[in-house]
Design brief:
Layout: E1 13-18, E2 22-27, E3 32-36, E4 51-56, E5 68-73, E6 77-82, E7 87-91, E8 106-111
Antiparallel strand pairs: 1-2, 2-3, 3-4, 5-6, 6-7, 7-8
Length: 114
């Protein structure tokens, strides 16, 4: 599918993932967009704003400058596998699902601790 408006203009979507009240799309150029409920960092945009249209999250936090090759979504958190082998996460973290050593939610993508 090729998007023709907004941040998807000229992009080809290669994968999608959906959580609870939000969705993400991975584009062939390694960028990621998200839309839906933004509370507690679900969208990875650095704020808690809900978006009714896709927003680019690839330029946010440690995701900036990385090419994503796979995405996954839990109920209220997301994961991205980057071409350099790193794994990033963002969103709700009540049970440690972000893998960052705390129970704090993250508004921006963060590196999963190894």
């Amino acid at each position: 599918m090729t998007g023709n408006t907004g941040v998807l203009e000229g992009k080809t979507i290669t994968a999608i993932a959906a959580g609870s009240f939000f969705s993400m799309a991975l584009c062939s150029d390694g960028t990621v967009v998200a839309w839906g409920e933004g509370s507690q960092g679900r969208l990875g945009t650095g704020n808690q704003t809900t978006s009714y249209v896709p927003v680019n999250i690839t330029n946010q936090g440690v995701l900036s400058g990385r090419a994503v090759v796979a995405v996954a979504a839990g109920t209220q958190h997301s994961l991205a596998l980057c071409s350099d082998g790193t794994v990033l996460s963002w969103g709700v973290n009540a049970n440690g699902q972000l893998g960052i050593g705390t129970l704090d939610f993250s508004l921006l993508p963060v590196l999963v601790d190894a």
